[in-house]
Amino acid sequence: MSDSVLVASNGAPPIIGVSDAMRRAVERAQRFAISGLPILITGPTGTGKELFAKHVHTWSGRQGRLVAVNCGALPGDLVEGLLFGRRRGVYTGAIDAKGYVEAADGGTLFLDELGSLPTDAQVKLLRVLESGEVYRLGDTVGRVMDFRLVAAAQDDLRQMVSLKTFREDLFQRVAGGIVPLPSLASRVDDIVPLALHFASAARRSINSAALLVLQRYSWPGNVRELRLVIDRASCLSESAELTVNEICEAIESAAIDEIDRRGPNGSRSQDGRRQELLEACQANGWNATRTALALGIGRTTLFRRLKSVGLSLRPT
Fold first, then answer.
1. Largest Cα–Cα distance of the chain, in whole Å?
2. Helix (H, G, I), strand (E, B) or coil at 303
3. Neighbours of 280 (CB within 10 A)
4. What pLDDT does 316 receive?
5. pLDDT for 91
6. Mapping DSSP to helix (H, G, I), strand (E, B) and coil, where does residue 6 land?
7. How far apart are CA 166 and CA 129, in angstroms?
8. Of 52, 94, 173, 305, most Cβ neighbours within 10 A?
9. Confidence grade of residue 248 (pLDDT, cut at 50, 70, 90)
């Protein structure tokens, strides 16, 4: 097993990383998984919350299914019926059907984007967690359920509690164990092993210059965005090795703008970027073509950089 594989595949993709932050997250998730406590996984979008939920389900040893539900994607008028089930005739066209909670009986219920759950559904979920019984819409008799709850949120639920948009009593119920996942930009050491893992899956390698570009980008979409960039670059490449050209094209213009703003050790100051451009322009007689070549960029990128720091090319 590779040194960068923190958790080997167990029906879910492996968790890749070498950073202390990810090692701590895996260890914390494993401890909570065997405790039986409800788990709340937090972190920005694209950091791997559902991946962690899949591994938690395996570590817990539960024999039932993992039922994954994106609360933000549930139709507003059908949320309760989908989560808790419904009786025939409770509304026009309704038939007897069990909900996601019942489907997770004996297994794990993963509620992603928990902060998106409407208030009425929050109340009913709280009742299920406190009583262990689920009532289908229209039912007067509950059904006893045995499931493990794992929830995820990219928003700060504590702040939502303070703003009265999320119930405090429900927060206390779901946050038995909290597993925060760091952004990819805050664990730069993991970018290269992740990129190489995704490239290997696409039967590609990545040259050192392209790896440097990947390390210098801020990854607002986190691991999900990195995987997409590698897959896209693999489609663009006609060779087995991904280069700077394919990586930059895959990241696209918004990402290239971000790379332009960053140096090898992180963000540079506005004054530092301005001074670098000013010196390059002066050294090349304020000629756009020569200045761009000296900086190793295209003319369009040069003009964009100059504009961002309040400079423009004067006539030669």
1. 85
2. helix
3. 18
4. 42
5. 63
6. strand
7. 16
8. 52
9. confident
